[in-house]
Amino acid sequence: MNLRIPGPTPCPPEVLSALSTQMVDHRGPEFAAVLERVTAGLKRAFRTENDVLVLTCAGTGGLEAAVVNTLSPGERVLSVSIGEFGKRFAAIAETYGAEVTRLDFEYGQAADPGRLDEALTTDASLSAVLITHNETSTGVTNPLRELAEVVRRHGKLLLVDAVSSMASVPCDVDAWGLDVVVSGSQKGWMVPPGLAFVSMSPRAWRAHDRSRMPRFYLDTGKARESAAKGQTPWTPAVSLFYGMDVALEMLEQEGWESVFARHQCCADVARRGVRRLGLELFADPPFASNTVTTVRAPEGVSVADLRTALRERHEIVLAGGQGPMAGKVFRIGHLGLVTEAEVQAVIDALAVELPKLGFVPPVGIGSSPA
Ligand code: PLP
């Protein structure tokens, strides 16, 4: 199966085989060694000297950890949202009692640093900013470095959802001054779902000491204390740590710059192919994501039928739209273990199936090969 959704992503055979390693004592030396290697590899990937904690939970658990470990009920925070995952980050903060001000951008667009500057200038009582690096629901990558620069200038705490960007596109935690950064194992890391990675800057730890939100399982303070002993506070998903150990080695063997370049090439194949078919890309072109391509469903073509046709006749699995975009777009995932040929196979299958579903390309399209 050519699994082309934006996570979970396919796992390399080496990772699959590591996942079936026999259990060890999670309070013993073998696990301590794996935890140390994985943490060190993550720090290199995040490009940070900050602490990186590995939590056994979904990416959403990592986002919840970012919130409950740094904020307090009643605290005023700014949510910069460009899609469904931005909304989720805000909802978590609100659930725990933060006073959330929303700076929402139209779906398909990136966040504008100028408007962020305006929002922070207008309301000096805001103390933290929540931003999604790569909005998986719309296929847009925010200009995080520029947005972070604005947040730094205003001296606010910056919490970043890098669940679907880290390990696939550059995200320089220290150079860009990102305080809390979250990613998840089932995305660019090529490992099954179940681990979240959370980096915390010294500023974030100071916020942790002040923070009054309730927390227990996701307390990064407890995770840091345990990590110093080569352990996790609660029983970890041991097998996923084995998988991460191997995946990190493979990604570093390829080299991070080559990994980023491969994602860029795969995204180029997707975008070029989609346009040549006469379809319309959803994301604002300068901010189109290198990990997921969102395509507007052509007039009269059912996304559900298209996905079924690709699954049943081509063994290709695409993602549909989320929230208000359900039925209006489909998404091609190209992150983690992915080659240009696998993305081209999607384009070729679309070329075969779309006409059967009633798609007529605009005049002048269709003569050149996809
Ligand atoms: N944030 C982004 C940008 C995501 O793409 C996802 C998952 O698709 C999440 C958060 C949530 O991660 P999980 O589904 O592991 O909870």
Q: How is this structure best summarized?
A:
The chain is an alpha/beta fold.
Description:
This protein is an alpha/beta fold. It has two domains: 13-253, Type I PLP-dependent aspartate aminotransferase-like (Major domain) (Aspartate Aminotransferase, domain 2, 3-Layer(aba) Sandwich); 254-356, Aspartate Aminotransferase, domain 1, CATH 3.90.1150. It has 13 helices and 14 strands. It has a seven-stranded mixed β-sheet, with helices on both faces. Strands 1-13-14-12-11 form a five-stranded mixed β-sheet. Strands 6-7 form a two-stranded antiparallel sheet. α1 (13-19) runs antiparallel to α10 (238-254), α11 (256-276) packs parallel to α13 (340-356) and α12 (303-314) packs across α13 (340-356). The chain is globular, with a radius of gyration of 21 Å. 48% of the residues are buried. The mean pLDDT is 97. Pyridoxal-5'-phosphate is lined by residues 7, 58-60, 85, 132, 134, 136, 161, 163-164, 184, 193.
